Amino acid sequence: MAAEPPPRDPHLRRDGAWVGASVPRREDPRLLAGRGRFVDDITLPGMLHAQFVRSTEAHADLLAVDLDEVRATPGVVAAYTAADLDLADITAELDRPPHEFVPTAMPVLARGKVRYVGEPIAVVVAKDPYAAEDGVEAAVVEYAPLEPVVTDLGALAEDAPLVHAEAPRNTLVDVSLFATEGIDDVFASAPVVVEVRSKTGRQNALPLETRGVVADWDDRDEQLRVQTCSQVPHQVRTVLARCVGLDEKQVRVTVPDMGGGFGQKCVVGREEIAAAAAALRLRRPVKWIEDRRDALTAAFLAREQRYTVRAAFSADGEILGLDADVVCDMGAYSCYPFTAGIEPLMASAEMPSVYRVPAYRVRGRAVTTNKAPTAPYRGVSRPQYVMVVERIFEKAARALGMDAVELRRRNVITVFPYTGVNNITYDPGSYLESLDLCEATLREEGWFSRRSDDNKVIGIGFACFSERTGYGSGAFAQRKMQVVPGFDLSEIRMDLNGTVSVTTGTLSHGQSHETTMAQIVADRLGVPYDRVKIVQGDTDRITYGWGSFASRSITIGGSAVAAASVKLGDQLREIAAHLLSGDPEAAVLEDGGVRVGSSWLSYADIADVAYLKAHLLPKGVGPGLSATASFDVGGDGTFSNATHGCVVELDPGTGGVEILRYVCVEDCGVAIHPQVVEGQARGGIAQGIAGALFEEVRYDDAGQPLAPSFMEYKVPTAMEIPDVRIEHLETPCAFTENGAKGAGEGGTIGAPAAVLNAVNDALRHTGVELDDTPIPREAIFRALETS
Amino acid sequence: MKPAAFEYHRARSVAGAVGLLTELGDDAKVVAGGQSLVAMMNFRLARPEHLVDITHIDGLSGIRREGDTLRIGALTTHRAVEKAELGDFGVLSRAMRWVGHLPIRTRGTVGGSIAHADATAEWCLLAVLLEARIVAEGPAGRREIPAGEFFLGPFTTALEPDELIVELVFPRPAPRAALTEYADRKGDFALVAAAVDLDADRVVLGGVGPTPVSADCPSSGTSHSRPPVSWADAVAGSLELRDEPGISAHYRRGLVRTLVERACEEASCGC
Fold first, then answer.
1. Keyword Chaperone: yes or no (chain A) (predicted)?
2. Quick one: average pLDDT of A364-390?
3. Do A720 and B185 touch (CB under 8 A)?
């Protein structure tokens, strides 16, 4: 049976590894040729189309919903209110006492009260999407308007109307996680104290593919089959089963190709539940595709926060303390499963950032307002607090008469592991090295001399930060989440001809997991990566998984996949050693087979025995080739890090901002596929720039959204986003299976700080400092006009 | 974002289109590139019961030079103008870079832009600046409407519901003219747009009123020696502006000053 191994694949790295090689993406042939299969590509026989009657009021008692005219509209098949469908509410909980957290129920369809413009009130099902919209127009909804709560400060006002009766002062979360003893004395005696007050705009994570679902009841499997573009299919299954009253096994959620999620799709939405409930009721397939207007006004939004942060410094530039107050405007409801706590808890836990902060006090609040609810968005509070902390270093440098990069150098964590004042232990990173390299790169490129050209208004800004990735069960439990999405579980199987299929509880919504996960398996088993099939996004085929968010896929999912591969490898070695009469300990996985001494046996031959000639297997070894492994990150997870440097030129005549150069020096440990990592960084930076300079979901005083289209919601295009130079550093993670750290969010986290600092640096001669985003061009214009 | 139901009609000739418009009356809208109308229909902000598609009419597209006059067919796309070599009408080609993005320029038409009458649209500014005549055909035949009398208000024109724009006539070359704009994003409708013709002592602004606004220019001496900066100050100072949400009158006035100055610079170098 022994044979010769096949020749090496040209894509392998020189040392024979797949990990670390930017191999052609498995996804490319279909996605680049337009043969991907997204939710909206799915058409089922007899399929109906859903649209929603949505609230036109920001805050009102719902007196009556009359759907008679809707049901009489040509093409409309059915229309349901909350009372018609009678679905359980969606409620996300934290294990925190009532003075820290108030749970609020989110009904699938509004009941009794509406809390934001765009809130779904009724679902209309019709033969086509046109008729569905005609039906929506025919609905008659009677409101008794209430005074709306439109701003965070308005929500906290003593006499503010209540969005939820159970939440006094409209406060859903109020936590004070840290208060170092004696911190007031630190500030009282500090030679330099600086303060940043910063408000960040409300944003939309804006996946290009809007949300959507196709649901139908399968009589043979007695199962509600739901195809949806979710980052968390198992959680959709759990919530859907609960809402409609089915068992978990009676619901199958699968995820086809996805055009982005960025966090907006890592929570359970109301519309997919309502559309699925309608399909169940009608016993006909129902499709709902969110249109762009709804996506911009009624989808989960993000980012709106207010920071008041003071920092104390010694005369020689040592940071002595940080004192912070954070208010997050979460909109009308807590999202499932994360709750409204996700933003204030993230900011509170991690604000000391990459610096050695000896004293820390923080209060974090989440308030509810009559605006569309929020979900996590790539970065989750980190874009904001990193921006604030990096502004602090710029301001302190000015107050101290020091260079801001030098001031960072003096304070950045350099000895690892480092346990901070926030009780988090930081694993090794390259904080100082990334800062040095980023500055040196911009210096070499000549930007510092261009900055001193008096005829131009040029500024350079930096952002040095780390990003906790791979939150394990422990880290989430520390946040007191009732649902702890930490581990990942992987099942691997080798089939007859030696091909491998492996499940992952994570799923790609554009991040190339079919390639990167396959690279990991390929290295562990010594097979070409295109012999490995990744199975993801199917609740029937995958044991409970948590999906993809929080930069967890490669760190946790990739580790589980690697561990499962090793177990399968052990089986293969045992069988091969038996068949070749050698020692299993001496058996090596190599070139798509097992080498034992001078003999080599292909996986196909081993699989042949495992499945077709089981009588040849060693004693005690059962038929088949499969293994299961799980992975969880113990302790505090692993921290990726980066320094971003941005050069801007301001136009005194218009207040316009042009980004002349952007440099990102990133360290995500071992990069499985460097090109994919760079894509993540570039896309993330674009979203960070969007927040700093362009995008804002604004509301008027009545709570009406002012950005229902791309005319008003200013997503930057290729015209606004600069080319980004990316440099890699590599500090491998000691406790993930591949040495990888997460790479999904860093771009978005660093960019707002780097851009805002660069704009302020360009304004250095004006005495004006701008700390809010998106930066108003008029403010730049006025600053430069008066200087 | 699906339009309300409408009936589609395809016109094969100008007379046919006019006939349809006459027959269908106010409930009909002309569609060509569809870059504004279709978006408005998808939002159900426009709900015409009938669409008259004129894109299959021969002879409505193209650019013709006749002596000092330039005639541009209504179905000519922005992109076609952008790519054309127009000599001393080059301002038209250069201004096209401000019209949306490439896909919009490839589909959108000159006539459609004029008929839509957005107060910041490049074609509306250029038509007023260069004193173009808008040629419209209706049941009574053709008439020429001076651009200065064409734009009545936001999205409102002197065009009758049964008339079709067939052509734009630019009566004189403008070798020293330019259009420039500012918006936070490239390709957006301008916050303020300024178009100048140094030889005609004309400035037209977009974004400062309900229609393109012809601003007063100091008119002494020869146009060749006029310093652009004083023009810009005078134009900006002459406007009556109000504070609006997100943009103060002061900022808008500042943009006017900057853009008039820059348009003058571009016009004088012809680049």
1. no
2. 97
3. yes
